[in-house]
Specification:
The chain is about 10% helix and about 35% strand. It is mainly beta. Strands 1, 2, 3, 4, 5 and 6 form a six-stranded antiparallel sheet that branches. Strand 5 and strand 6 (about 120-130) form a beta hairpin. It is elongated.
């Protein structure tokens, strides 16, 4: 039995101009990031592009590999003044998605992040990382 990791994240993006004061909120998006049950797990490669790196991945046990996470839900669907941050998955789970046995479930953890984009806008957030059984 394995458990899947999920990350409930609240993000706050600060952009220079807001269209109106009614667009100002404490949190811009609530995001649920984790394993998509409708997709097969895809392992994250170590960054190399040659065949030897791909072969090395075959020798890593499945429970020690990192997998690609995806956005499962986010609320609201869209906001007029703030676009949904495309980099949110890598900010929430920089080490990727990990699977664990039922006897080896880590305790919940909090992960904070801040990202300054090329245009000067910011994405700040806090992830609550927990494992489902």
């Amino acid at each position: 039995m394995t458990s899947k990791i999920s990350s409930e994240t609240t993000t706050k993006s600060t952009i220079a101009q807001a269209s109106s004061t009614s667009d100002l909120t404490l949190v811009d998006y609530f995001v649920l990031v984790g394993h998509d049950d409708n997709a097969l797990p895809q392992a994250i490669e170590s960054g190399g592009t040659n065949n030897s790196d791909a072969m090395e991945l075959l020798y890593i046990p499945p429970l020690e590999r990192s997998y690609v996470a995806s956005v499962l839900h986010h609320f609201p669907e869209r906001r007029s003044a703030y676009s949904f941050p495309s980099e949110i998955v890598s900010l929430c789970m920089p080490k990727g998605l990990k699977f664990h046995t039922q006897n080896d479930i880590p305790p919940p953890a909090i992960h904070t992040f801040a990202n300054i984009r090329e245009d000067g806008s910011r994405v700040n957030g806090c992830s609550l990382i927990y494992h489902e059984t």
